[in-house]
Amino acid sequence: MEHETIKSDDRREYFRLDDDVLLDYARVDDEQIATLRERIFDRVVDRFTVAATFATSSRTMSRILSSFSAGQPDLARYLKMMDQKLNQLARLFVIEEMNASGHVAARVNLSAGGMVFPSATEFSPDEMLQVRLALLPAMTGILAVARVIYCERSTQGNGLPWQVAVEYEHIRESDRDLIASHIMAREAERLRERREQEQEGREEE
Prior knowledge:
By secondary structure, the chain is α+β, with helices and mostly antiparallel strands.
């Protein structure tokens, strides 16, 4: 399903890519959704979402640093090192959060609008789920509330009987941007690897 797109209600299109992520999900009721919305949109930072918050801040910081790095290179270098250390610490938090629950990497079809993932549990269309996913290898933890679009029998042969498609119902736009950037980076990496393999093949001929 690589390179396909998904359209959200606001008519935006999102590239999709098969990728490995750390993932957990659970049904939520209206009361739990209200609490999750507060965590998401009031930017209540916890150990799981702090890496995503730092990653967004790092983007802003890099633009600021570039504006004065020529005049104050030592200060710019110091601030960049501090930013890197904070991001490393945040990634450790996400690793601890996901490892504590015994999560392993799952192959999903990922986009900034939603995803398709294998599941041991059957869900009904329009059920609401809390979704926590960690993008690899950066260990960027993203929290969202998602609506089930469909749930059908899996043909993947991975031991999990269901394929579940969800669309993000409540997610920070900055986190959506992080997913989109991750997908573009992964696609660029795969294209580069493909070109290198083709080049090696021509050299061996």
